[in-house]
Design a protein that fits this description.
Blueprint: E1 2-7, E2 17-22, H1 31-38, H2 42-45, H3 48-52, E3 60-64, E4 74-79, H4 88-105, E5 110-113, H5 115-118, H6 120-127, H7 134-149, E6 168-173, H8 179-203, H9 211-225, E7 228-232, H10 234-240, H11 243-249, E8 257-263, E9 274-278, E10 280-284, H12 304-319, E11 325-334, E12 346-348, E13 354-356, H13 364-379, E14 383-388, H14 392-398, E15 403-407, H15 410-422, E16 427-429, E17 447-448, H16 456-465, E18 474-478, E19 484-485, E20 495-496, H17 501-509
Parallel strand pairs: 1-6, 2-4, 2-5, 5-6, 9-11, 9-14, 10-11, 13-17, 14-18, 15-16
Antiparallel strand pairs: 3-4, 7-8, 8-11, 12-13, 15-18, 19-20
Helix pairs in contact: 4-7, 7-8, 8-12, 9-12, 11-13, 12-17, 13-16, 15-17
């Protein structure tokens, strides 16, 4: 779907449907809708359909105009819920639902008046809401519209009679928009491209998205945008000392790959990079410590961290950001078998530290620990962030709408939380006090890869912390709950969410503020 600008007097606006947002009654209408009702939409003011519309979250009403009345044959109203609970995420989801309604009806050229978003500033003044700049409101509207329409249909063979998706979304205004607004359109387009890629990779079956498939995907991204790429196979990883990564890969017939992408535009080659590391377990059976059978098919999503990193590089390449960024994705299956690693085994990691295996289902931290140590040694990063569907314990602690975040710098954790909140991705910090490592002490090795069930998300992060030099700022995102959803929010359909792409993309864009 294209995003187009139409700069013209109201009388010259011509779209297939004109979209307005509204809060739940009994609140007054937002200024743009109120002005429409007093002007070209007087016919709507007395319409029973307007009275019936309640403005509830996810509610969408299509009202047909009398022939020749106003700039569009249809007015579409999208509900935001109570004004007291408003946040930009509600606007993002409402935008998704309203564009899906356009798709359902075969509406090809819907439009939104920029004034419909400018009106939220008045709402803030009267309700005590936090700041909602026009830039932020437009970005969330476009993110919801574009990402909310997306579906993964590549593997469906049955012919569909569904109407075509909208060809364009027109932004209507009566004077030229500020340059920052045009920039926001480009930013939204780039980040949604990354979200779509991450979602498609994560929701695809594991017999399609293998480590080799991820390596090929990374190669295609590198080719399109001129990134450097290095793909390390199992034998090379072993020879380099990546014993933890190799241990996890030992039970699978699928070849594992350790993937490195680097974006270093001219003039940044010698800058200390921002390093993003994504867990790429393309299927997690639990290994010898086999998982329960219920919902095991969802374990194809255990590479959502690697998918998010690839999605960020898609967005970075499309945006042409002039910053040095490195992406590292250790990718393998975790399978049982005659050659699989076992509880009680001990392996030497890339850092030289030895690890006793307590659970082969705590495999994500094993591939990540080699990636963290390797990245710190080779790239001397300005900061490192890893993103992983690491522990079910994070779901027990925080549910499925909030990701856990931990790190070795409070200011970095706080900054990520702040920018995550600005793009609708919530993180909650958990402590990494030194005494948590006591549970990981081993009698036969430097550490164990798992402790008891208590504080599982913290123990996972504490394990990873041992492989990060103290002088390197580092944060760990545990997205086990947020990478997948069983409900349709509008912005995210059921299935993979692409969680983390927006936050990491924004982190790269704003890294100079740290």
């Amino acid at each position: 779907m294209q995003i187009e600008w139409k700069v013209a007097p109201h009388s010259e606006w011509q779209v297939d449907a004109l979209i307005f947002f509204a809060f739940e009654k009994p609140r007054d209408y937002l200024p743009a809708l109120r002005e429409f009702l007093e002007g070209p939409g007087k016919w709507l003011a007395d319409c029973a359909a307007l009275t019936d519309f309640q403005g509830k979250p996810s509610e969408v009403a299509v009202i047909y105009a009398p022939r020749g009345c106003g700039p569009a044959p249809r007015i579409i109203l999208a509900g935001l819920g109570p004004i007291e609970r408003f946040e930009t995420e509600r606007l993002k989801n409402a935008s998704a639902f309203v564009l899906r309604k356009c798709h359902e009806l075969g509406i090809l050229r819907p439009g939104i008046a920029l004034a419909a978003l400018e009106g939220f500033a008045c709402v803030n003044e009267s309700s005590g809401l936090g700041p909602c700049t026009l830039d932020a409101l437009l970005r969330e509207t476009l993110a919801g519209a574009m990402a909310g329409l997306h579906q993964f249909n590549e593997l469906k063979t049955k012919n569909s009679l569904a109407p075509p998706s909208p060809e364009s979304l027109t932004l209507l205004c009566n004077k030229p928009p500020e340059s920052s607004l045009r920039e926001i359109v480009a930013v939204a387009r780039c980040e949604v491209a990354g979200i779509k890629l991450a979602r498609d990779l994560t929701i695809s079956p594991a017999n399609r998205v293998t480590p080799a498939f991820l390596a090929q995907s990374a190669s295609e991204i590198a080719g399109r945008f001129g990134f450097k790429i290095e793909i390390i196979d199992l034998d090379t990883a072993r020879s380099m000392g990546m014993g933890a990564f190799a241990a996890v890969a030992s039970g699978s017939a699928e070849p594992p790959f350790f993937i490195i992408l680097e974006h270093a535009p001219p003039g940044t080659e010698n800058d200390a990079p921002l390093v993003l590391i994504g867990k790429g377990i393309t299927f997690d059976s639990g290994g010898i410590s086999l998982k329960p059978r219920d919902k095991m098919e969802e374990m194809k999503q255990d590479m959502a961290g690697a998918a998010a990193v690839l999605g960020v590089f898609e967005a970075i390449g499309a945006a042409g950001l002039a910053k040095r960024v490195v992406g590292i994705m250790p990718c393998t299956e975790n399978m049982p078998g005659g050659k699989a690693y076992k509880p009680g085994d001990v392996f030497r990691s890339y850092s030289g530290r030895t690890i006793e295996i307590i659970s082969t289902d705590a495999e994500g931290r094993l591939v990540l620990c080699d990636a963290l140590a390797y990245a710190a040694e080779r790239f001397k990063p300005a900061l490192m962030v890893d993103i992983a569907t690491l522990t079910g314990a994070s779901i027990i602690a925080l549910g499925r709408d909030v990701a856990a975040i931990m790190g070795n710098r409070e200011e970095l954790v706080g900054f990520i939380r702040k920018i995550g909140a600005s793009v609708g991705e919530r993180f909650w910090p958990l402590p990494l006090w030194d005494f948590y490592f006591d549970a990981l002490k081993s009698e036969v090795a430097d550490m164990k890869n798992a402790a008891d069930r208590g504080a599982g998300a913290i123990h996972g992060a504490m394990f990873l912390k041992q492989f990060v030099p103290d002088h390197v700022p580092w944060a760990h995102m545990d997205i086990a709950g947020t990478a997948w959803t069983d409900k349709d929010s509008g912005f995210s359909r059921k299935g993979s969410t692409g969680f983390g792409v927006r936050t990491l993309f924004e982190l790269v864009r704003r890294s100079g503020e740290l």
